[in-house]
Amino acid sequence: xxxxxGIASALIALLLVxxxxxxxxxxxxxxxxxxxxxxxxxxxxxxxxYVVEKGCGGPSVVFESGFAATSLNWIDVQEAVAxxxxxxxxxxxxxGWSSAPVSERTPTEIAAELHTLLGAAGVQPxxxxxxxxFGGLIMQRFALEYPGDTAGVVLLDxxxxxxxxxxxxxxxxxxxxxxxxxxxxxxxxxxxxxxLAARSHLCRSAKFSGFLLRLAGSQGKYLAGRLxxxxxxxxxxxxxxxxxxxxxxxxxxxLIAHIRAVxxxxxxxxxxxxxxxxxxxxxxxxxxxxxxxxxxYGSLSRxxxxxxxxxxxxxxxxxxxxxxxxxxxxxxxxxxxxSEAGSAVLQSAH
Length: 350
Prior knowledge:
By secondary structure, the chain is an alpha/beta fold. It is built from 14 helices and eight strands. It is globular.
C-alpha cells in the first residue's frame, strides 16, 4: 500500500512538473511568435503597455476594449478606420501583452494610464475616443478628465452601472463567483491546463476543451456560449494570440483585478457628470432596451440602435461602427478640432 501511494505521489509530481515546464516553454514561444505587429510603450512604474497603431492623419481614434478583451477585439474596425485616419488600440494593464497593474482597475486610474500612454507614444490630441462595454466607462471618465484633448466620444453598448453592485446588490453574487472561478484559472494556467484547454478550443478540434466544459455543467455551457458569441465572430488568424493570452497566469490575475474593482468602478461612474461641449454617440444593440435618458452621457449626445447586434456591436456590425466613428472624425474636422484628414473624411461623407 505504501509503495502504491509512493508511485501515485511520484506520478502526480511528474505531471505537475511536466505541466509547469509545458506552460513555461509555451509562454516563451508565444512571446517570440505572437507579439507583432504592436510594440510595448513604457509608461513608468515598471509598466509597459502593448499598442497597435495603424493609419495616418488626425484626429487620432483611440480604442478601449471591454472587460476582459484586448486590442485584438478591434482588428476589423481598426483596419477600416485606419484607411482614413491614424488609429491606436492597446491592452490595459493586466491584459494581453501589457504589464501587471499597480493600481485599482477603476475608470479614473485606467484613464490616467491611457493619457500617459498617448503622450509617451507621441499621439497628438485631440482624440476621438471609442469604448466598448466597461471600456465605455473608461472613455467617459477620460473625456471628463481631459476635455481639451477630446474631440468626440463613441460608446458601444457601454456598461450600465445600475445593473451592477453596489447599485444593484442582487448581482453581488455574480461578481463574487466570477472572482472565485478566475482564481482557479491562475492555478490551471500555472500548470499548463489552461493552455491545453485554450489551444484545444481555439486552435484545434475542441475535444479536450469540450470535455472540460461539460464537466463544469451549467457554468461550462455559459462559458461555451460566450466563447461562440465573441471569439467565434473574430478573424481566425487572431485565435493563436487569444489562446496565448488565456494560457498565461497573468491573464487571470489581471482579470481578478478588474473583477475586484467592479463595485468601485460603479460607484465612481454611477453619478458621474455629463460630458459637456463634446459630441457623444452611444450605439445600443437591438438586443438591449434603448437608453431612456441620453442627457446623462452628455449635452451633445445621441443614440444609434444597431438592430442586428448583440452586446459585441463592433463584431456584429463592424461596418456600422466604422461608419459611426468616421462620421465623428468628420464632425471634429468640420468643427476645427481635427486636422486636414478630418476635413477630407467630411468631404467624402458628403
